[in-house]
Structures are given as C-alpha cells and as structure tokens.
Specification:
mainly alpha; Rossmann fold; three-stranded parallel β-sheet; two-stranded antiparallel sheet; 17 helices; 34% helix
Length: 348
C-alpha cells in the first residue's frame, strides 16, 4: 500500500515472490499525511482509492494477510520542493502510518516491509540539484521504522538508497528507471530479488534453502549474506569461498536442484501451472526458455543435450543416458559433461 512506488510495481512483486498472493493497493500521488490524518487531499484519494490502513484491510480486498509493503513519504517530500526541514515532521507522520498498519491489521500479527526510495536517476521537478536531501527523506523513513514500538516486526531496507548505482553526488543508473524517480520493471525485479526481502516475505519458503541469518563474513557485524547479495562484485569475489557458499546458499546460487512445490507460473492462455505440469519434453522445451519458469523449476528444466556423446575409459562414446547411477555421476559429471548432461548429472 502507499504511493506510486507501490502502484507502479503492478504485479512484479507477485512474480518475484513465488507461491505468494499479492494485492496491490498503491495510489499514485498519495501522501503520508493522507494516510496519517485520514483526510483525502490528492486525486486518487479524493476519488475513493485506498489511502488508509483501515480501508486497506477491508474484507472486500482480501484477507489472511501476513505482510505489508508500505511506501509513503515521497510525495510529501516532493510537495515541499524536497525541503530537508520537513524531516522531523515527516518522520512523525510516517510513524503514525506505521502505527495504523499494526492497529488495523488482522489479529495474529503482521510483518511490515519498508523500502524507502533510491537516489533518483535525474533532476526531480523543482527540487534543488543534488541528492543530499534524499538522504534526509530516507532518514526520516528509517527513523520512523526503527524507533517504532513494533520495530521487531519491521524490515527497513537501507540498501534501496544506493541499489541502483546512485550516491549523494551522483544520480542512479537510468537503466533501472522509467523516469527520474520511478523504477521500471527491471528496477523492481532488482529490488524484490534482494535476499533480505525474499527471506522476510518468505518467498519460495518450502525447500529450506535459506541463507544463514547469523553468519558474518570475517566476523564483521555488517557483512551478512544480505550484505554480500547487494552487489555483484561482492558475490563474484566472495561466493567461490567455501565458507561463504555454505552459509549463503541462496545468495551464491548453491541451493539443491529442487523444483518449487507450491509456486506457479503463467502457462498457456494465462492459466497458472505448477512445475509438475512440465512432464513432457514439448512443454519443457517451450516453457523452460522463460527465466521465471527455469528459476521456479530448475530440476525439470535441466536438459541433456541431444546427440551429445562423451568418451569413457575404454574409448567408447556414450550418450548422457549412460550416466544412470551414483558411481557414474561422481566419475563423469565434471566440466563439459556436467554441462551437456545436466539432467543426468542432477545439475541445475
């Protein structure tokens, strides 16, 4: 729920969090002040869209919620021409919105995800040039989250600020943005693929392949698996290390080759399908070309390259089907054979 950052994510969160149902109630232009006071001031809210936690939890939208992604504060900041002096006032309003989420949520508790905003990819409206004041906006959101009485049930993702290549002195990379402030599809996917978000929302939480929450590289308090996952150079440098790969299997793509049990993808005519539907070569050949399907069903999407042969000890040439027991897997599934005979070698 929240502003255009939420609304314009459309169904990307649902696609990025396999096995979960997502209801997008974002309203472009909405402000923290509207969610805080309950008084509609902007177009969408005046027209009756969801601009309060109380409305968001009405049964006509859904039920059984476990998590909320909240995005508010950006429009208040823009409306004040990015004036850093509204920081303390904005923090109070966002804190009030957070309180209302927990108050109005179904009994049994709710988990709240707050991502804030990344550095823009270009100059923003009438705001002064430079990103220094973006830090103040992010700080107001962060303080509202970490100082809330329900802080143990809140995940604030500080990584969002620099996730897209921006800094206090540089704009973010435009390839992740639809305009100066709104993410494009690739940007949203990058955000939602953060390990800390995937773990918090329990995406694909069925096979038990999760990063350790207690592991710290070199025992440095900030160097968690989530910290490693945020930047590709870190993953490239650290994941080859055995201890990192062992403790951070999801970050380092070191999970067992198992298909999702409950996750679904959009199959023929948009009909939801599970991995078990991929039980024919014609289906796997067609559908496993899609990354979303291949990621969801890595085992069924592992192929043996047709007509590929390799040489065994006596000089004979063998097809991948020859690798049909544990002894042969250990002996032959290396290098090029492992890549060409992925299915027989149980490789994803």
């Amino acid at each position: 729920m929240g502003d255009s950052m939420a609304e314009l994510s459309f169904d990307i969160l649902a696609k990025s969090c396999s096995g979960k149902s997502v209801i997008n109630l974002g309203v472009s232009g909405s402000t923290a002040n509207e969610f805080f006071t309950g008084q509609a001031e902007t177009g969408g809210c005046i027209d009756g869209d969801v601009c309060s936690a109380k409305d968001a939890f009405k049964s006509n939208y859904g039920s059984g919620y476990t998590h909320v992604w909240l995005s508010v504060g950006g429009n208040d900041w823009l409306g004040a021409q990015c004036d850093a002096d509204i920081e303390s006032t904005l923090e109070d309003k966002i804190s009030g919105v957070i309180d209302s989420v927990f108050k109005e949520s179904p009994k049994g508790g709710i988990k709240l995800l707050i991502t804030g905003y990344g550095y823009p990819s270009d100059a923003v409206g009438e705001c002064p040039k430079g990103n220094e004041k973006v830090d103040r906006l992010q700080n107001a959101i962060q303080q509202a989250a970490v100082n809330n009485v329900n802080a143990d049930s809140i995940l604030f993702v500080q990584a969002t600020l620099e996730l897209f290549g921006g800094s206090t002195t540089n704009y973010s990379d435009k390839k992740w943005f639809a305009d100066a402030i709104h993410l494009n599809e690739a940007g949203y996917k990058k955000l939602f693929s953060l390990v800390e978000i995937q773990d918090f929302l329990k995406c694909n939480d069925e096979g038990g392949c999760n990063d350790s929450t207690s592991y710290r590289y070199q025992d440095k308090s900030v160097k968690s698996c989530a910290w490693i996952s945020r930047k590709e150079p870190r993953k490239t440098n650290l994941c080859p290390k055995w201890i990192v790969k062992k403790n951070c299997p999801r970050t380092c793509n070191n999970c067992p080759c198992e298909d999702s049990v409950s996750g679904q993808f959009s199959g023929p005519n948009g009909v939801a399908k599970k991995c078990t539907w991929l039980n024919k070569d014609k289906r796997t050949t067609k559908w496993c070309k899609l990354k979303t399907v291949a990621d969801l069903c890595p085992k069924r999407c592992s192929f043996n390259t047709k007509r590929f042969k390799f040489t065994v000890d006596n000089g004979d040439k063998k097809f991948c089907s020859y690798i049909n027991n544990t002894i042969r897997i250990k002996k032959f599934c290396k290098g090029n054979v492992a890549a060409k005979c992925a299915k027989s070698c149980n490789k994803c």
